[in-house]
C-alpha cells in the first residue's frame, strides 16, 4: 500500500470511524523534463507523471454535507473543513483555508448529469511536496475529480477532466496556470514521458525505460508561492509580446519575426518572448533526441533551457542555479535544469544510472541548503487504488 494511502486510511478511521472508506483514489504529481512556461503560450511540454501521489479516501453521506480532512504537511489551518454541497442558489466560493480551495473548485465545476454532487466524508494525504514545483496543486485537483467520478460518475472524457481541474485552479486559488500539470496528472503513463501539444492537446508518448538512464529530482526545499504576482505577470508579458508581433500566441511566432519586430516591444517583453519561442523549439528537438537515444543532446538542451529561464524569463533563483551548476560538473550527467513554475522548488537532472548516487553526494557536499532527492520513473496517471 502507498504511504499516503495508509496515512489517509488511518486518519479516516480516527475522524469518521465506522465503516468505510468505500472510495480510494490517487493522482500523481509530475516533473517536467523540458518545455517550461510554454503551455499557456500554446507550445509544447515534455512532462512525466511521478510515483509521488495525492490520495483521497472517503464515503458518501446523505445529509448534503461535505467534510474533508487533509494530512498534508505545510497545508494551512484548519486541516478539517465542512460545508454544504453546492446548488444553483448557493454555489461554493473560495476562502480560507487555502488548501480546501483546490477541492472546492473541482466540486463547484464538476458536471454530473444525474443531479448535484452528493455529500461525503473524505481524507486527503500526499507524498507530493507542497510548493516544490512538482504539481502538488494539480494532483489535489485531479484526485478530487477522480474521487467525484467514483461518487457520481461523469461521462469519462479525460480531456474534459483535465480542463475542469484547470478551470478550478483559475477560479478558486486564482492561479492562471496552463494545462500541463492537470493534463499529465490525468494522462500519465508508466514508462513514458509525454510530448504534449498544449494547443491541440495531441500527445506523443516517448518511452523512458532505458535502465542505464535515470531522472533525478533535487528539491532545493526553498518554497515558492505560485499565487504570487510573478506568474500572472509573465503570462501578461507573453500576451503583450504576441500582440505586438501580430500573433494569436507566441507559438505562432518565429525567432526571425521576433528579431525583425524587436523595436516594437519593450526590452522585458522581448526577452520573455525570446525564452518562449526558443523553449518551444528546444522542446521539440529534445523529444526527437529522446526518441533517437541521443541523451547528450537532450542534456545540452536542458541546460540551455535553464539558462534561458534564468536570464530571459527570470524565474530561477540562486539556489536552483547552484544545484544545476553542481550537477552538470559530475561526469555522466547529461543535463540539468529547474523544473516547474520556478522561484524555488526542484531541479530535474538526466544522468547515467551509475552516477546517480555520486551526484547526490556531490550536491550534499557543495549545496548551501538542505536538499532532498527522488530518483524517479514515469508513472501512471490518476485512478482508483486497488482494494
Ligand atoms: C506551473 C503551471 F501550473 C503550469 O501550467 C506551467 O505553466 C508551469 O508552471 C511552467 O511551465 O506549474
Describe this entry's structure for a reader.
By secondary structure, the protein is an alpha+beta fold. Helices cover 39% and strands 22% of the residues. The chain is built from eleven helices and 13 strands. It has helices spanning 3-16, 98-109, 136-151, 158-171, 180-187, 230-244, 255-260, 267-291, 295-311, 318-328, 356-366; strands at 23-32, 44-45, 47-61, 65-70, 80-84, 119-126, 192-197, 203-207, 213-219, 333-339, 346-352, 372-376, 383-384. It has a six-stranded mixed beta sheet. A four-stranded antiparallel beta sheet has the order 10-11-9-12. Helix 6 crosses helix 8. The model has no long low-confidence stretch (mean pLDDT 96). The site of 2-deoxy-2-fluoro-alpha-D-galactopyranose has 10 residues, from helix 5. 2-deoxy-2-fluoro-alpha-D-galactopyranose binds at residues 36-37, 39-40, 177-178, 180-181, 340-341.
In short:
The chain has 387 residues and is of the alpha+beta class.
- The proportion of residues in beta strands is 15-25%
The helix content, as a percent range, equals 25-40%
Global mean pLDDT: 96
Report the C-alpha radius of gyration, rounded: 21 Å
The end-to-end span amounts to 10 Å
Regions with little confidence, pLDDT below 50 for 5+ residues: none
Q: Main beta sheet, described?
A: 6 strands, mixed
Shape: globular
Derived from helix and strand composition plus strand pairing, the structural class reads alpha+beta
Notable characteristics:
binds 2-deoxy-2-fluoro-alpha-D-galactopyranose; globular; 387 residues; 11 helices; alpha+beta; four-stranded antiparallel β-sheet; six-stranded mixed β-sheet
Amino acid at each position: 500500500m502507498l504511504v499516503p494511502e495508509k496515512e489517509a486510511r488511518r486518519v479516516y478511521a480516527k475522524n469518521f470511524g465506522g465503516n468505510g472508506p468505500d472510495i480510494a483514489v490517487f493522482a500523481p504529481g509530475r516533473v517536467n523534463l523540458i518545455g517550461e512556461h510554454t503551455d499557456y503560450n500554446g507550445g509544447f511540454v515534455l512532462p512525466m507523471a511521478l510515483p509521488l501521489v495525492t490520495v483521497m479516501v472517503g464515503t458518501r453521506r446523505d445529509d448534503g454535507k461535505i467534510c474533508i480532512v487533509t494530512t498534508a504537511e505545510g497545508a494551512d489551518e484548519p486541516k478539517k473543513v465542512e460545508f454544504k454541497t453546492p446548488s444553483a442558489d448557493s454555489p461554493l466560493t473560495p476562502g480560507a483555508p487555502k488548501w480546501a480551495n483546490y477541492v472546492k473548485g473541482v466540486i463547484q465545476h464538476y458536471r454530473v448529469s444525474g443531479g448535484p454532487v452528493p455529500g461525503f466524508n473524505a481524507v486527503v494525504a500526499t507524498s507530493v511536496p507542497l510548493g516544490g514545483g512538482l504539481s502538488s496543486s494539480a494532483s489535489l485537483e485531479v484526485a478530487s475529480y477522480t474521487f467525484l467520478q467514483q461518487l457520481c460518475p461523469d461521462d469519462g472524457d479525460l480531456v474534459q477532466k483535465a480542463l475542469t481541474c484547470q478551470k478550478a485552479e483559475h477560479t478558486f486559488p486564482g492561479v492562471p496556470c496552463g494545462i500541463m500539470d492537470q493534463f499529465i496528472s490525468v494522462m500519465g503513463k508508466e514508462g513514458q514521458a509525454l510530448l504534449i501539444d498544449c494547443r491541440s492537446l495531441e500527445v506523443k508518448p516517448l518511452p523512458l525505460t532505458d535502465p542505464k538512464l535515470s531522472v533525478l529530482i533535487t528539491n532545493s526545499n526553498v518554497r515558492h508561492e505560485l499565487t504570487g504576482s510573478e506568474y500572472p505577470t509573465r503570462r501578461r508579458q507573453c500576451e503583450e509580446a504576441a500582440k505586438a508581433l501580430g500573433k494569436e500566441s507566441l507559438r505562432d511566432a518565429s525567432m526571425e519575426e521576433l528579431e525583425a519586430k524587436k523595436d516594437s516591444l519593450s526590452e522585458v517583453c522581448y526577452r520573455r518572448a525570446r525564452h518562449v519561442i526558443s523553449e518551444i523549439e528546444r522542446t521539440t528537438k529534445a523529444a526527437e533526441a529522446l526518441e533517437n537515444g541521443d541523451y547528450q543532446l537532450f542534456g545540452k538542451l536542458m541546460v540551455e533551457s535553464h539558462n534561458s529561464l534564468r536570464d530571459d524569463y527570470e524565474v530561477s533563483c540562486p539556489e536552483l542555479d547552484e544545484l544545476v551548476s553542481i550537477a552538470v560538473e559530475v561526469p555522466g550527467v547529461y543535463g540539468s535544469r529547474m523544473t516547474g513554475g520556478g522561484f524555488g522548488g526542484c531541479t530535474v537532472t538526466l544522468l547515467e544510472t551509475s552516477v546517480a548516487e555520486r551526484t547526490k553526494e556531490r550536491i550534499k557536499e557543495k549545496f548551501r541548503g538542505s536538499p532532498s532527492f527522488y530518483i524517479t520513473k514515469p508513472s501512471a496517471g490518476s485512478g482508483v487504488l486497488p482494494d
